[in-house]
Fold this protein.
Amino acid sequence: QVQLVESGGGLVQGGGSLRLSCAASGRTESSYAMGWFRQAPGKEREFVAAIRWSGDNTYYADSVKGRFTISRDNAKNTVYLQMNSLKPEDTAVYYCAADTSSTWSWGYWGQGTQVTVSS
């Protein structure tokens, strides 16, 4: 099993920045990739960004490309999401997820952290 704990959410004005962290514990060696997702009120959960634990490949939703950056610290088993130029439409609960099957299916999820962007 893999446990995921997100942190770093909060309230920020439009145009501001936040950095989310996701600390993984447990059987982290079984984790192939990590992802960030978000869910706004009344909307479905959507993909934001993903990164593999090895290699340089990163993946982003079109809506956040150029503004968000996903990164990892393998030594700390932690993944980050640097969010710049935030917009009110970025307001959502942000979730961290782990893929342990190498098929981009997300079997483990964190509890989520709220990000609110004011206009």
Remarks:
- The mean pLDDT is 95.
- The two ends are 40 Å apart (CA to CA).
